[in-house]
Amino acid sequence: MSNEENRISWNRFSEYYQSIKYISLNDIHYGPYAPGEKELKVLGDLKGLKCLELGCGGGQISIVLSKWGAEDVIGLDISEKQLEYAQALAKKENVDVTFIRGNMEDLSKFNDSSFDLVISVHAMSYVEDINKVISETSRILKANGNFVFCVLHPIQIVLWEALEEKSFDKIYPYFKTTRYKWD
Prior knowledge:
5-stranded parallel sheet; 6 helices; alpha/beta; globular; Rossmann fold
């Protein structure tokens, strides 16, 4: 899926997605069925850090980063509708987060070595060029900065569909190289 198709899809899907998914505003989630940051303790102390969330969607993680003491939090997403939701949610939660529309493959709006933490949860699967994301993230991270990201394990889609259909008869090749498209 191209970045433009991705943007259009999320704009169409945003309201429904946010209405059916619960994403914590008190813990940083790493995905469905995964423990959160309170249990995993991946990020460490956030107080005073400058943080960027790539593919922030509805802004829940950015909001938690701000609540936990990050000094400057920016959420970046390709979808205007997701960002509208994020801005309203941040206002409701009374936190100061900057939300910007953009493509995580092009972080040229940010200076070199400007972030202590870049985080992306289940968003990098939607990009066209993962190498650009990693290269750009490396450029904008401070010398001792951290890049924390997670993506769905390929088997997760198989399990979701099997549970939905109450059947494990449908099996995909594990190393399938074609893109998964949803409508």
